[in-house]
Specification:
Layout: H1 2-5, H2 11-20, H3 51-54, E1 58-62, E2 69-70, E3 73-74, H4 78-92, E4 96-100, H5 117-127, E5 131-133, H6 140-147, E6 154-156, H7 165-168, H8 171-178, E7 183-186, E8 209-211, H9 213-227, E9 233-237, H10 242-255, E10 258-261, H11 266-272, H12 287-300, E11 303-305, E12 309-313, E13 322-326, E14 335-339, H13 341-351, E15 356-360, H14 373-387, E16 391-394, H15 397-405, E17 414-415, H16 422-426, H17 432-435
Parallel strand pairs: 1-4, 1-7, 4-6, 5-6, 7-8, 9-10, 9-15, 10-11, 15-16, 16-17
Antiparallel strand pairs: 2-3, 12-13, 12-14
Helix pairs in contact: 2-9, 2-10, 4-5, 10-12, 11-12, 13-14
Length: 440
């Protein structure tokens, strides 16, 4: 309907919120999560910069190289590999590229175990050229190393969080960090929700400031799928609490044709409908909120869908006794921990005609095999929809973990790499690392 196709601009923020939400399905969450989402404007990316813009230029790039390192050995190098395309593009265009990143949470200044040294070696292997390791991230020595670089050479600065000023976005530190460079690229999606010196501060001194491919892909993909959504558009919102998802839920109700609710927050909605929920997780403070959301869905012509069958257990335990009951017949002393088979079938039928599906939050306690069927069935359904040409977006956190556990990550249209920016976006805050970049 036309009403649905209008205010899709805000959807960028909503989808990004989903993309970054990683509150567990049944985990307790901060209650302050209720403010309107904020629009994200199109930003300039490295793709807008030509060889003439880059050749011989000293470029500072903020990557997310925060990888697990034990005794100098890198565990999972996914983030390093994800950073390669942007760095390679800059090097191929003749830029002098200095990468910066944080690693872990150093307490007081430099510590060997938080050094990015091993990352420089691995990054060099991935790029097929040596990456020099700087002894620091600011100061005269770093400046002279940068000055001595040739075109197409790469350098890795030492951990920015060896300085407390990094997270405080301290003005004097920002100036020192930016001093040797001509322009700035932010390719660190995972820290874009933080206004730190290396994500937001340096943009005040370096121009242009643009996004890298990784950051741009997240923003463009997530925004693109919903700016002009291919309808019908459905969202599946799981998770433990109405309180943590209400802002996102309300925004989605305004935009989607269908919204499917699952996970622990189902029971606050069932109770709001006057149904018995046994010992299931309920937020009594949010029953009115749930009623308001249902009223909003009615007003906006969005079909709000709840599971009609629940797998209940007599304890929160992998080995508890279980039974499948209708969602309006949950017995006293039993708690809902997953969708029942009929609910899964109903969800599959509701999604069958959808052309875009956004999924955030599991349907049950999928960490325990006994309560994982509902969540993994969604993975299978989305795989089939993708094969039929639908756009499927997996929005961060537990949904990503579920898709990976099911071995179906490659079968989805887009999987967001976001992490801790979840609640910030759910509260309607802007991503400072993105807002600070040049407008396209």
């Amino acid at each position: 309907s036309t009403a649905k196709s209008i205010s899709n601009k805000n959807m960028k923020a909503v989808i990004l919120a989903l993309a970054l939400s990683c509150a567990g399905a049944f985990a307790p969450v901060n209650k302050a999560a209720v403010r309107a989402p904020v629009e994200l404007e199109a930003k300039k990316s490295v793709a807008d910069l030509s060889e003439a813009d880059l050749k011989g230029k000293k470029v500072l790039i903020r990557c997310d190289l925060n990888v697990p390192i034990k005794e100098g050995v890198i565990g999972d190098d996914t983030r390093i590999r994800a950073s390669v395309p942007t760095v390679k593009y800059l090097l191929d265009k003749g830029a002098k590229v200095a990468m910066c990143s944080h690693l872990g949470r150093p307490k007081d200044g430099p510590e060997d175990k938080f050094s990015l040294g091993p990352v420089a070696t691995r990054m060099g292997e991935q790029l097929g050229k040596a990456v020099k390791m700087a002894p620091d991230c600011i100061g005269d020595e770093v400046a002279s190393i940068v000055d001595g670089m040739g075109d197409g050479e790469a350098l890795l600065l030492e951990n920015t969080r060896f300085y407390k000023e990094e997270t405080k976005n301290d003005a004097a530190f920002v100036e020192k960090l930016a001093a040797p460079f001509d322009l700035f690229v932010n390719d660190a999606f995972g820290t874009a929700h933080r206004a730190h010196a290396s994500t937001e501060g340096v943009t005040k001194y370096l121009s242009p400031s643009v996004s890298g491919y990784l950051l741009a892909k997240e923003l463009e993909y997530l925004a693109g799928a919903v700016d002009e959504p291919v309808r019908p558009l459905a969202a599946i919102v799981g998770g433990s609490k109405v309180s943590s998802k209400i802002t996102v839920l309300e925004s989605l109700i305004k935009k989607c044709d269908k919204v499917i609710v699952g996970g622990g927050m189902t029971f606050t909605f069932l109770k709001a409908q006057g149904k018995a929920v046994g010992t299931s997780l309920v937020e009594d403070d949010f029953i009115q909120t749930a009623k308001d959301a249902m009223k909003l869905a009615e007003e906006k012509g969005c079909e709000l869908i709840f599971p009609n069958e629940i797998l209940v257990a007599d304890a929160f335990d992998a080995n508890a006794n279980t039974q499948v009951v209708s969602s309006d017949a949950i017995p006293d002393g039993w708690m809902g921990l997953d969708n029942g088979p009929a609910a899964t079938k109903m969800i599959q039928d509701k999604l069958a005609d959808c052309k875009t599906v956004i999924w955030n939050g599991p349907m049950g306690v999928f960490e325990m095999d006994a309560f994982a069927k509902g969540t993994f069935a969604i993975c299978d359904t989305l795989k089939e929809l993708t094969e039929k040409g639908a756009i499927t977006i997996i929005g961060g956190g537990d949904s990503v973990a579920a898709v990976e556990k099911a071995g179906l990550a490659d079968a989805m249209s887009h999987i967001s790499t976001g992490g801790g920016a979840s609640l910030e976006l759910l509260e309607g805050k802007v991503l400072p690392g993105v807002a600070a970049l040049d407008e396209a």
